[in-house]
What we know:
Number of strands: 4
Radius of gyration: 12 Å
Strand content: 35-45%
Amino acid sequence: xxxxxxxxxxxxxxxxxxxxxxxxxxxxxxxxxxxxxxxxxxxxxxxxxxxxxxxxxxxxxxxxxxx
Length: 67
């Protein structure tokens, strides 16, 4: 995938393991945007902590990613 959206710190930690993420900005309050390389492939990452946002946060995030 070109973009992975990770929800929650445990999920983010499990997916990334020891990979380094270069954070380049945010896509909302508390949601980091960056990139990493996994198995030689560059992947954009959005990480949303589990305790952030309201019930519509994920919908807004995904709507923005598809535009």
